[in-house]
Hints:
Elements: E1 2-13, E2 16-22, E3 32-34, E4 39-45, E5 48-53, H1 57-60, E6 66-73
Parallel strand pairs: 3-6
Antiparallel strand pairs: 1-2, 1-6, 2-5, 4-5
Amino acid sequence: MVTYCGLFSVCKEGQDSILCIDVEVALNPTLIGVTMKRIWTIRQENNRILLALKGKEQHTMPNGMTGQLELLWEKIP
Length: 77
């Protein structure tokens, strides 16, 4: 299992809420844990991992919200 811990922000991209994580800014662990079940798509751009969240997570993490996040999953597809 791989752990990514870093700052995150939420922005809108099309119909999805995109969780942008700067994996180089690793600070303190978990404010919000995201599991594979809640993730629609994952892609990596440079040092950022972008997640499209589905379901009520789009509402619990509003647009522009920032904080710290720890991600746990088996691997990036």
